[in-house]
Specification:
By secondary structure, this protein is an alpha/beta fold. It has 16 helices and 13 strands.
């Protein structure tokens, strides 16, 4: 199964994974964690129960396997982790990924599924394993034959949790969970988790934390999203270049503060026609007028703060520019959701200005939307100076190079 997994700008080493694990990841050519991995792994490693929700193909398997591998005691050849999946194929795939991720450690994994000789599975269990991956039917079978003991279990994982907890599997799952020690960590992974299933899941977990990457709310197909590296003191110039380059039909420029918005507006008002400003301190009559003009297309560029920007639903907006990176990730979702509403064949564009010290905030947004933003370089314009310590002759001599 090959799927392109979007990654974020945190590294696996940042997540606190051990050397053998990092070596295995390197061998598998996993360069960076996917967003669900970046968010889920630290919580799972802390010992908390955790529910992870993310679209298919985003790397949920490694998200739960890696924390297990970090916390198992390989010195004790007893089943310490049980992973349940709804199908044989999935169990085999998960067991395979577990083996690959633990190739340089002592971890032993067995796959317990129906449709395969039970003898071989029993033999492996008798040799001593740390992780058992399987489907509920065969797992129960081996428990009842007393070939599989769950007394030393520390981790239970339900992969494809919504399937595992639906009516077909639930009795089996309950039967298995009743035999698991109370003192254990429970992890649930799923692409979707309807509220009733989630409520049910809570019965099997202890104050679980939830990581939900599935509700980014942005039609990523209809909005092309980029970030632009900027120097703090050259944002205005960058904006001008970006506008010239993009020639937006209509553009909404977001700033964090009213003061910042006022300042930017003052700089543009004289130079560009059809520019307006909108923020919470302005009189309602002004706001109403501006909205009307923006809606009619008379205003082409609107400079706004988040509070006001949220309610705006105008189909002509072709571009969103985050002049200031949003303070809260949810604001990003709301801001960018303002575009991409054009008639179906027209795309929206969103550009987020990021200064060199805002990498972490960019990462948080990427985690939130479960998508990596590519960098956009404005043609013929160096929107940010080359990274220090390279200096231009002007800077060295104390001149401004602008
Ligand atoms: P999910 O369970 O979310 O549907 P999988 O765990 O099956 O996704 O992962 C999908 C594919 O991506 C697998 O082939 C897996 O090996 C690969 N993969 C997972 N994490 C990464 C990563 N960080 N970098 C590259 N590939 C990855
Ligand atoms: Mg999966």
């Amino acid at each position: 199964m090959t799927t392109s997994v979007k990654s974020v700008s945190v590294s696996f080493a940042d997540l606190g994974l051990s050397e053998p694990t990092l070596a295995a990841l390197h061998k598998m050519k996993f360069e960076k964690p996917s967003p669900i991995q970046a968010a889920f792994i630290p919580i799972a490693m802390s010992g908390s129960d955790c529910i992870g929700q993310a679209h298919t193909g985003t790397g949920k398997t490694a998200a739960f396997v890696l924390p297990l591998l970090e916390r198992l005691d390989f010195g004790r050849p007893v089943v310490q982790a049980l992973v349940l999946t709804p199908t044989r194929e999935l169990s085999e795939q998960v067991a395979e990924e577990c083996k690959r991720l633990s190739y340089s450690s002592q971890c032993k994994t067995v796959c317990i599924v129906g449709g395969r000789p039970v003898r071989a599975q029993i033999a492996e269990l008798q040799k001593g394993v740390h992780v058992a991956v399987g489907t509920p039917g065969r797992v129960i079978d081996l428990i009842e034959r007393q070939n599989l003991s769950l007394g030393d279990l520390q981790f239970v994982v339900l992969d494809e949790a919504d399937r595992m907890l639906d009516i077909g599997f639930r009795p089996d799952i309950e039967k298995i969970l009743r035999r698991c020690p109370e003192e254990r960590q429970t992890l649930l992974l799923s692409a979707t988790l309807p509220p009733p299933v989630e409520r049910l899941a809570n019965r099997y977990m202890k104050t679980p934390q939830k990581v939900d990457m599935s509700t980014n709310g942005i039609a990523t197909k209809t909005v092309d999203q980029y970030y632009v590296t900027v120097d703090y003191d050259r944002k205005m110039e960058t904006l001008r270049w970006l506008l010239l380059d993009q020639r937006p039909q209509q553009v909404l420029v977001f700033l964090r503060t009213k003061r910042g918005a006022d300042e930017l507006y003052r700089k543009f008002a004289g130079k560009l026609p059809n520019v307006a400003i909108l923020h919470g301190d302005l009189a309602q009559s002004h706001r109403d007028r501006v909205m009307k003009q923006f809606r009619s297309g008379e205003v082409r560029m609107l400079i706004a703060t988040d509070v006001v920007g949220r309610g705006i639903d105008i189909s002509g907006i072709s571009h969103i520019i985050n002049y200031d990176i949003p303070e809260y990730c949810d604001d990003y979702v709301h801001r960018v959701g303002r575009t991409g509403r054009l008639s179906s064949d027209e795309k929206g564009y969103a550009f987020t200005f990021v200064t060199r010290d805002q990498g972490e905030q960019l990462t948080n947004i990427e985690i939130r939307i479960n998508n990596m933003l590519p960098e956009y370089k404005i043609p013929n314009f160096e929107s940010a100076r080359p990274q220090a310590p390279r200096k231009t002759i002007h800077e060295v001599e104390g001149f401004s190079n602008r």
